[in-house]
C-alpha cells in the first residue's frame, strides 16, 4: 500500500473504512485539535503535542489516544494497545455502525483537557542498561557481522530488539524473530523505525 501524503489520501486508500474514518474525522475536527500527518497516518495535536490518531487494520479501525491511560473510560471503550504500552489506549471499531458519536466526542474532549492539564506519560529509561536475552546473545555470538551492527545501534534500538525477542513465548517464535530482525540490524535500523516520525 502506498504511503499517504495527506489525511484525505489516507482515508481514500482505506476504502473498507472510508465512511467511518470520515465520520471520526468530522467528530475530531469539531474540537480545537490541529490535524496533521505523522507516520503516514492522521494525528491530531494540541500545541504540537500528540493527543490522538486514526488507524486502520485488517479487521478493525479506531482512535489511538497517546495518553489514554488518563481517560476515565466511562463507556468501557478503551483497550490497551499492547502489554508494554504505558500510556497508549485505543478505541476499536469494526463498522461505522459501532461508532457512538457522542461518546467519541466526549473521550476526545477529555483527552484534550488532560493534555491541557499536562497529564502525560514521560519516558523513564534514562540510565537503564540493556538486558540482552540469552537467545539473542547466542545468535549475535554466532554471527559476528550482525553483532558488530547490533552493538553500533543506539541503546534504545538494542532494547527494542531485546524486548522483541524476550517477549516471544515459544522457541520457534524467538527463532523467527531473530531471523526477521537480521536485515534491519544490518541496515542500522530499529525495529519500530518505520512507525517513527522521520
TrEMBL record:
This chain's protein is named YdeI family protein
UniProt domain YdhG-like: residue ranges: 18-112
Report the superkingdom from the record.
Answer: Bacteria
Q: Name one Pfam family in it.
A: DUF1801
Checking Gene3D superfamilies in the record gives: 3.90.1150.200
Amino acid at each position: 500500500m502506498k504511503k499517504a501524503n495527506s489525511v484525505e489520501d489516507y482515508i481514500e486508500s482505506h476504502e473498507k473504512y472510508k465512511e467511518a474514518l470520515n465520520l471520526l474525522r468530522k467528530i475530531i475536527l469539531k474540537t480545537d485539535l490541529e490535524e496533521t500527518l505523522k507516520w503516514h497516518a492522521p494525528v491530531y495535536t494540541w500545541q504540537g503535542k500528540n493527543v490522538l490518531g486514526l488507524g486502520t487494520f485488517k479487521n478493525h479501525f479506531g482512535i489511538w489516544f497517546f495518553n489514554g491511560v488518563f481517560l476515565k473510560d466511562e463507556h468501557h471503550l478503551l483497550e490497551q494497545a499492547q502489554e508494554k504500552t504505558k500510556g497508549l489506549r485505543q478505541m476499536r471499531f469494526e463498522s461505522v455502525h459501532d461508532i457512538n458519536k457522542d461518546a467519541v466526542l466526549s473521550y476526545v474532549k477529555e483527552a484534550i483537557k488532560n493534555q491541557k492539564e499536562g497529564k502525560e506519560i514521560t519516558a523513564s529509561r534514562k540510565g537503564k542498561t540493556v538486558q540482552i536475552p540469552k537467545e539473542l546473545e547466542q545468535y549475535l555470538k554466532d554471527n559476528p557481522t550482525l553483532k558488530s551492527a547490533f552493538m553500533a545501534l543506539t541503546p534504545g534500538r538494542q532494547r527494542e530488539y531485546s524486548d522483541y525477542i524476550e517477549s516471544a513465548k515459544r522457541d520457534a517464535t524467538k527463532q523467527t524473530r531473530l531471523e526477521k530482525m537480521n536485515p534491519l540490524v544490518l541496515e542500522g535500523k530499529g525495529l519500530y523505525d518505520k512507525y517513527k516520525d522521520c
